[in-house]
# Entry
Amino acid sequence: MLGKLGLPEILLLLAIALLIFGPSKLADLGKGLGEGIKNFKSAVKDGEEGTDKKS
# Structure
């Protein structure tokens, strides 16, 4: 089944990423990704509040 990722495939990808980047780089990458998602959500929320005020 091409296109579906199960648990074994995800674990394999994480293991490969750990080998390539190392634990510290992987932790920094996860932290940066989390902060990016948080900033994106707050920007979307602020944008929705801004359009409500204009109406």
In short: The mean pLDDT is 85.
